[in-house]
Amino acid sequence: MKDFYTGKVALVTGAATGMGHTTAIEFAKAGAKVVVADVVEDLGRKTAAEIVASGGDAIFVRTDVSDAASVGAMVDATLAKYGRLDAAFNNAGVIEPAVRLADLDEKDWDRVLGVNLKGVWLCMKYQLPVMVAQGSGAIVNTSSVCASRILPRTSAYTASKFGVVGLTRMAAVEYGGDGIRVNCILPGAVFTEMMKQAVADDPSRLERVKATRPLGKVADPIVIANACLWLCSDQAEHITGHALPVDGGYVAAA
Ligand SMILES: NC(=O)c1ccc[n+]([C@@H]2O[C@H](COP(=O)([O-])OP(=O)(O)OC[C@H]3O[C@@H](n4cnc5c(N)ncnc54)[C@H](O)[C@@H]3O)[C@@H](O)[C@H]2O)c1
Q1: pLDDT on residue 252
Q2: Catalytic hit among 5, 82, 157, 175
C-alpha cells in the first residue's frame, strides 16, 4: 500500500505494542502522518520515534481510551498537529484472567468493558464529528474471533468484543451518509503480548489454537495491519459495517 496514505492522517490506539504498533508503522510506510496513542508512555513514544527515525511523521499522545477527557484530548492533539483525521484504528484492548463467568471479579469486568467497549465508543464519539466536518473518513475497530466463536473463560472480553461489532454496525449505518465508513476486524490468535499472556494462563492453548486453524498457525501482527490499511483505503470504498475475521479460517472453539 505504498503511498496510499500520502497526505493523510491516521490515528492508532493501543499503538505501543502488538498489532497497534505494527499498524502504526505500516500506516507511516504507506505515507500517512500517524498519531500514536496508548496509555503506556515509554513504548508509545518508542513507536512514534521509530516512525520518525525512518523518515516518517508521527506524534505520541498519551491516552487512556476508557476516559472521555483523555480521548477528547487525543483528538484535539491530532487536529492541533495535523489539522484532519482520515483513518482511525481503535484497537486498544485488555483481557481478564481466564476464569469462569461466576468467578470473574467485578473490577475485571469494569476494566475490560471500560477499555474494550466504552473505549471504542469514546474514540468514535470524538472522531466522528471531525470526519463529518471533513465529509470523509474511515474507522476500523478491533473486535475478536470471540465475537464469532465462544472461547470459554473470557466472559467480559467476549461481551466487550460482541459489543464492538454492534457499535461498528451502528456507526456505519448512522454515518454512511456523511461519507464515513466504519468496519471492524476480528483477529484470531495473533502472536502479541496479549496472546503470550493467554498462553501463560493456559499453556496448552497454543497447540489447541493452531489445531483449529486450517492455515495451522498463529499469525504475525502484520496480517492485521494489512487488513486495517486496506479497509481504511479507497480500495474498500464500498465496504462498511463489515466484521472481517482475520483468523486463519478458525473452524472450532479452541
Ligand atoms: N492477540 C490476539 O490474538 C488477539 C485476538 C483477538 C483480538 N485481539 C485484540 O487486538 C487488540 C490489540 O491487542 P494485541 O494483541 O496487539 O495486544 P497488546 O497487549 O500487545 O496491545 C494492546 C495495547 O493496548 C494498550 N492499552 C491497554 N489499555 C489501554 C487504555 N486504557 N488506553 C489506551 N491504550 C491501552 C496497551 O498498552 C497495548 O499497547 C486488542 O483490542 C485485543 O483485544 C487480539
Answers
A1: 58
A2: 157
